[in-house]
């Protein structure tokens, strides 16, 4: 069977247990879903995800999430082969472009050659310049930034350069302009950074600062064609919801939606589902990562999962016979783990369509995230770059 519309929803950072190479990243023992379930002591209610096989795919049943007997669709996990564990790495790999060479990271802050140029271009002094939690850095330096107009520049364990500024002090458009310039400084060959992230915030003081939905990612231009490009060139609709457009720098996207939140993102999914299109809708829901994973907040993480699960019920109910739904993640971000960075984990993979003949079926542990994109290309009979193995025949026959 060929599906007219394929919907893939990426639950940003919702990992499903340590990856085989997790120790090399210092992440052995990480398990985002398992630890959130344990934190909730069996009270994590995810009936719709459970029905698709969420506990079936995990190494052991997730506390509070019953094993589906039978599961509605097919389920499994995917392993990352990219050199990093950032969102860009994960999404590019899903779309057939694994990041083979490690990108630049800055555990001791950025060199003067970068910082001085940002300061000169912006006409503003740069402060902090070291790895920092995004919420803690505005708590510690936000009031100073409001008084001086300086730029808060910081990084993490990933290949990111983040610039935070109060929206009343540095307008969002100006912050974007500074980030666009910073992007030009780290495109290689000396330094190659995955993402420049604008981090605007608002609030009267450090006890009330809140990062806004005006966040924007300025990603490295894809280093080759992705599955999105192949689909678009073949004449299919390619719809990006959330930060998808940013991650791929607009390449291969025919229409994009910016998300204010997970629920706003799901509103966009509902809107697209009501439209008549032929092709692929790719959605990222970032709140799990940005609001709860990095902040090591398992309670909020679990609440966000339960809120999504309620909306997922509507998506499942509204799927047409020739629709295919895929649910996965781009990496882990275990809110019960040490540190505040992403965690190297396997990610869940769930597939469902009302007309699937093969249900309650394990897709096993896929060798690469690229199997997702390979399956989508296979469905639309589009030739890609040969990365990844399609599982279409396993779910569509």
UniProtKB/TrEMBL annotation:
GO terms for molecular function: phosphopentomutase activity. Its cofactor is Mn(2+). Gene3D superfamilies: Alkaline Phosphatase, subunit A, Phosphopentomutase. Residues 4-383 form the Metalloenzyme domain. It catalyses: alpha-D-ribose 1-phosphate = D-ribose 5-phosphate; 2-deoxy-alpha-D-ribose 1-phosphate = 2-deoxy-D-ribose 5-phosphate. Mn(2+) 2 binds at residues 289, 294, 342. It is found in: Cytoplasm. Isomerase that catalyzes the conversion of deoxy-ribose 1-phosphate (dRib-1-P) and ribose 1-phosphate (Rib-1-P) to deoxy-ribose 5-phosphate (dRib-5-P) and ribose 5-phosphate (Rib-5-P), respectively. This is Phosphopentomutase. It comes from Limosilactobacillus alvi.
